[in-house]
Design a protein that fits this description.
Blueprint: H1 2-15, H2 25-30, H3 45-52, E1 83-86, E2 89-97, E3 100-105, E4 113-117, E5 122-126
Antiparallel strand pairs: 1-2, 1-5, 2-3, 3-4
Amino acid sequence: MRNLIAAALALACVMLAIPARAADLADVAARYENTNPTGWSHAWCARFIRMILPQAGLAAPQANDLSNSFLSLPRTRAHRGAIVVLAGHVGIVERVDRVGVHMISGNWGHRVGRGIVSPSSVQAYVEPQPASAAASIPWPIKPAHARHHRHYRPHHRRRAHVHHR
């Protein structure tokens, strides 16, 4: 059954001219739901996307950890696996329906989470490109504000705190 689903997904990607690996990006992001895998305490949505792109076999933009750095990627239409760029935020499209753009992103309530945004708030949908050896990024990258600070140390990974009712 799993092979049949994978074959159907690959066929759909070919028919829609969507890179096959991009369809997996939303699934890769979902693995981190309710966590903060970056260890950063603020403005880490773009860092999260840059972290998961290589896991899906895709290249991250060689810029910085700001959401607008993704605007350098080729534009596409809204589809599962596309990167959605908003003013000051970035995420991965899970689906689009009459309610809005359903996405999963980092730093959504201080964790990887799902949300719905209005299509009118979207700056662009961009297509991640297949990775090459030159496109790999070191991990972790220092935040822009700390790159020249002599006492900089990356945050340690923290477990997500779960509230039980």
